[in-house]
Specification:
Blueprint: H1 2-11, E1 15-18, E2 35-38, E3 45-49, E4 54-58, H2 63-71, E5 75-76, H3 89-94, H4 102-105, H5 108-111, E6 112-118, E7 124-128, H6 141-144, E8 153-160, E9 162-163, E10 167-175, H7 178-190, E11 197-201, H8 203-208, E12 214-222, H9 224-233, E13 238-240, H10 242-254, E14 261-266, H11 272-278, E15 283-286, E16 291-296, H12 299-308, E17 315-320, H13 338-349
Helix pairs in contact: 7-11
Amino acid sequence: MASALRESAASGRSLRLEGASTKRRMAGRADASADEVVTTGLSRVIEYEPRDLTISVEAGVKYAELSRLVAGHRQMLPLDPPCAAEATVGGVIATNSSGPRRRLYGTARDMVIGMKFATVDGELLESGGMVVKNVAGLDVQKILIGSFGTLGAIASVNFRLYPMPEATRTYVQIFTSAAECAAARDEVLRGALQPAALDALNPAAAAQAGLEGFCLLVRAGGSEGVLARYGRELRGAAEFEGAREAEMWAAIENWPARQRYVVRAGHALKALGDVLESAPAAVVSRAGTGVSYLSFGDAQQLAAWMARTQGAGWTRIVEWSPDGDETIPELWPDAGADLSLMTGMKKLFDPKGVLNRGRLYGRI
């Protein structure tokens, strides 16, 4: 892989990095005429220390296989990415994919403790290590997370793992309005409960998960005593566990990949009600973190929403769109001042711009 990067950079040919291609509709389109390097052959588990809650795997290992392996030791990597059944570890990390449990456990930047990656110079560089608390050197791996393969090719990743809770249960409260749903979310945030996930769904999204109305989903883990407290405090909530709970969350985690267009919006927590009501189709919100995903049936709906929310103060990125769609002028319309810093980083890592041209929302 390192040799392929070096040869392409030397010749000036562009290079397209792929894993299992589950995120091909996510972000921008890489140059279709570029040479392709597929990482699925990098499929080894390099090191696993269950007692230390750490594991190192190559980038082509499937996320689902990694999850099954560590589950044998009652451990987990709670990233909950879309397309988890087929996605590779490298793809999950390169796209910074996460899901409902980011509310408690964070995102990839909180779980990746080390990385090996190839540069366009043909070098294999390492950052971090196999310990959770590592103060040696720079956390260069954090720059690669979410870079969509525009800076280097991820070869292997070291993760911190988490012990599985004794049991899990999900509590669903149903409301007739977005305002009521947002008020219930506020009550959870003010209380002593610390759920793993706190998601809000508008009626269109709820229907896709087998629910109805404006729904607040609270996912909890712990002992029976802890779970019973959730039941007491979340008055009137329906309770889900076992296979039904797993099916419901799998539907929510994979939801973005099943939509035509999806916008990821960042917003203040107090704007939850407005966000849930703003889109003409389904909305899934990470209600405890201020990140929401809004779906649109066609480009006209999307363009109208973009125009209507221009002054709302929300960050907006078109995260998923149909393959080959050329009707959207900008996937990242409000890039802001950070783009110049990112462009400078691109020039530092890939001076000739050969890696995944256009893949970072058409901007880089």
